[in-house]
Every structure is written in structure tokens, then in C-alpha cells.
Amino acid sequence: MKMTFIGATHEVTGSCTYIEACGKRFLVDFGMQQGEDMFENVQVPVAPGHIDFVLLTHAHIDHSGMLPLLYAGGFTGEIHATVATSHLCDVMLRDSAHIQEFEAEWRNRKGQRKGDENYEPLYTMDDAMGAVKLFVPHNYDEPFEVCEGITVSFRDAGHLLGSSSIIITLTEDGVTRKLVFSGDIGNPHQPLIRCPQYIDSADYVVMESTYGNRVHDRPTDYATALSQLIQTTFDRGGSVIIPSFAVGRTQEMLYFIRHIKEEGLVKGHDGFPVYVDSPLANEATDIFVNNRESCYDEEALSFVRRGINPISFEGLIRTVTSDDSRAINEDTRPKVIISASGMCEAGRIKHHLKHNLWKPENTILFVGYQAGNTLGRSLIEGAKRVKLFGETVRVAAEIKQLPGISGHADVNGLLDWAKAIKGVKKFFINHGDDASAKSFVQRLQDELGADAYAPYSGAEFDIGEGVITIDAEAKPIPRKAANTANMSAAYSDLIAASDRLSRMIKLSDGRTNADMRKLAEAINRLCEDWSLD
What we know:
Layout: E1 2-7, E2 16-21, E3 24-30, E4 53-55, H1 61-64, H2 67-72, E5 78-82, H3 83-114, H4 125-132, E6 135-138, E7 144-147, E8 150-156, E9 164-172, E10 175-181, E11 204-208, H5 222-235, E12 240-243, H6 249-263, E13 274-277, H7 279-290, H8 292-295, H9 298-305, E14 316-318, H10 322-328, E15 336-339, H11 349-356, E16 363-366, H12 375-380, E17 385-388, E18 391-394, E19 398-401, H13 411-419, E20 426-430, H14 434-448, E21 452-453, E22 460-462, E23 467-470, H15 484-506, H16 513-529
Parallel strand pairs: 3-4, 4-5, 5-6, 10-11, 11-20, 12-15, 12-16, 13-14, 13-15, 16-19, 20-21
Antiparallel strand pairs: 1-2, 1-22, 2-3, 7-8, 8-9, 9-10, 17-18, 22-23
Helix pairs in contact: 3-4, 3-7, 5-6, 13-14
């Protein structure tokens, strides 16, 4: 029995662990790397066609996003997940494939003009559909035997609809070991879905550490804060445009708006329309409703038992077609528009920003994290102009941000989850950046007296003997070292141009105001084009 750590080691995304046991080879998660990649990952040590099955914690792309590529490589085994995760992956993997194909088409259009080689998508829609057909859905807390010697069950992790921790019991040559993979552990303050459910015992635990060194702020009274923002915007004749992640955060926003409408917290605008303009978000919302009995928390279920859909209300309009989407901006009433993507990098939200950013009566409300070098981050940081579809758009709308209710447990929630598990011989800490993973290892050692270890990619562990057989070292990804000489020459040219521009500005004193404004506008446009503003 052997476990090899592949992805999300000292990093937050790309989750993947490889296990050999009971004559089988299988993966726990096979996620896509997202954002900056700091450390090199080893490859899965066998070809996709030799993987017997996959166990999936939840549907987020950093845990599931490489499954279509596994299928494309020859994998034909079963993918075991909860019922809700299986349904969400049907939507999200198809959406990911659409993005892959769209990006390839866009790159190839640009590349043809330059004579570049043809760019191939990471995987196609056919690959995604092939992977989706391999899913085998399971209910929470119902153990099943994958094969002789391997029994699995899913426990609600409270992170996303259908998210799970995975409990694996392995029996080989008379030796039995119980493994637990935490998946992403949820924040107990999240609305709509249940809090994370604890696990009583395990021999070895592979555990996430996304917020392993941080404590969340106290939750905002979201409904009150949101209603006040809507009230202020509507009273001045504007609309509230919310860039939102399609799965999870959109449904939370609907939950809060239903409460606002029911309690009449927005005065003088009865029946105000709320548009959800994202095909993915609309499909995901249906999946939430269809899995309510197994995933909703008690508060949400109390509405269901009274015949109330907690994420639906009068005035909710869900658009599907492009024509429906375009028609939203012809509706002159004060309204709420919820659209993806959450960081404004793609999707229909960009069209709504083009139509609404330049109007001072409107509010653009951010309700989730905005990564660096994204349009969303630029707006939050005070950009005065942005580029949308090749056109410069003035930012006159009010830009606001309500801290989101994080979907991840903070360090205290992680420690509470770990404390509940008895008999753990060793914790393996992953799915956290380098500082967070190391910090959480120390917290487990200091506060629980636990044996804890944060493996790098390539580390191997003998599950039967309980020993680390390969203690892999960190392999930071080289930062384009091969191009250092060319980069240095180019940088020197850039510095020289900067000096010339500086001299030009100093010599401009005494020129006409019109000339100086013209130069300032030219510099501002350059900064916007290079995302420096």
C-alpha cells in the first residue's frame, strides 16, 4: 500500500494524490492548476489507461478540472463522487471545455496573423462529455466497496454543494488502514449549505490548509449591508451590477436577496427585478434546488418544509440566450444584475460593465476575492478607465465591495475538524500555499501534539508500514531563466525610453494646457493598455 503526493503540495490548487493498494491504482482528485504555479509537480506515475478509478472530493475545477484530460489519455474507469458533485461536474466540466476550446480558437486567430503554430486546447467538449459519463454518484455516509479490500464513504465537508471528505478503508495481506482525505473544509458560517461534518477516527489524514495561518473576520450582517447598498443605488436611479462566481456565491446572493425582499428591507422599490445572467449559474442553481434534502442546512430546509424555495423569489429573472442577455440593458428600471465571471475576466459580466460602468448612478458590487492582474482587481483599486472589447470605458459608477462569507474554514475551524479525529498516526498537510501549509503543520504539532508533515510533490508514503519512503524536496519552477539575456536587453531599452519620457515631461513646462493634457491622456492610455493603472 503506497501513497504518492502529486499536486496541491505547498500550493492551493491542482489537487491530486495517487494510491496503489489491493492490486489497484487510483487517484483522489485530479484538479487543474490555477493561478501562479510555484513548485514543479511530478507526473502521475502510470498512464491514464492504467488508472482503475478516481475518488473525487468536490466539483471545483482545482479538484476536478483535469478529469477530461485523463479521459482523453485513455482512462475508462469509474469516477466516484457524491450525487450533487456528479451533477455539478456535468455542468462545470462542460463549461471548462468550452473555455478551453474558445481560448484555442482565439489564440489561433491571433497566431495565424503572426505565423505561429496551431494552439491545441487542453481538452475538448467530447473529452468532458466522456469523463462525465464515467461518474458514479453516491449518497453521504453510505459505504460502498469499490473492489475487494477497498471500502469508501463520503462525509459532508460543508464547503460547496456536494463537497465531501473521503473515508477510505484499505485491507491488504491482513493489514487494514483507514485513510481520510479532508477535501476542502467549509466555513461553519456559510449560508444555505450544512456545516462540515466531523469524522471520528483514522490512521492517516490528508488535510487541506488554505487558511492554515489566518483567522476570518467576524461575518458581516450581509442582508442589512446589501439592502442598504441596493437602497442607496435605487434611490438615485441606478442599478446594482454584481460580478459573481456562478457556483456557490451566486446562490448565496439569491438567498440573501430573498430575505431582503421578504422583510421589505428595500423601501419604495417593491418587486424590483433581479437578473441572473449566466447559463452556468442558472444550471447550478437548479442543481442546488434538486439536492436540497441532502445538502441544505436546517435554516434553508425550514423554508423548503414550508413550501418556500430559499433561492427564488418574485422578480427573479434567469436569462439563457444571448438575446435575453442583451435585453437586460434595455430595461430602464433600477435592478440587480448578477453575472459571471466573478473577477470580470470573461463571460457576460463584461458586456454589463461596458453598458453600466460609465453611469454614475450605478453601483458595481464585488462579493468575492479578486486576484491580481484581473479586471475586477483593477476596478477595486480605483482604475479610472478600463478596456472592454477594445474600447476604453470611463469608470464613473460607484465601486463597492462586501467581504464574502468564505467557503473555507479558517485555522480555528481546521483545528476543530482535526481535533475530532481520534487515533491519527500522521497528518499530511496539503492544499495551502507554502507559508500556510508550514504554519498549520506547526499548529498541529503545538496544539494537538500531532505528527504532521507537509509533503512536496513526489513524496511517497508506505501506508502499511507507516513510513515515508521518499521525502521529496521543493523544486521551485524556474522563472524564465533561459531568456535572461534577452529580457535584460529589452529592459534596458525600456528604461532608456522611460528616461526620454521623463525628460519630455520636464521640458513640457510652459507648453499650452491643451498640449500638456494631450500628453497626459496619451500616457494614461498607455498605462491602461498595459494594465499598469
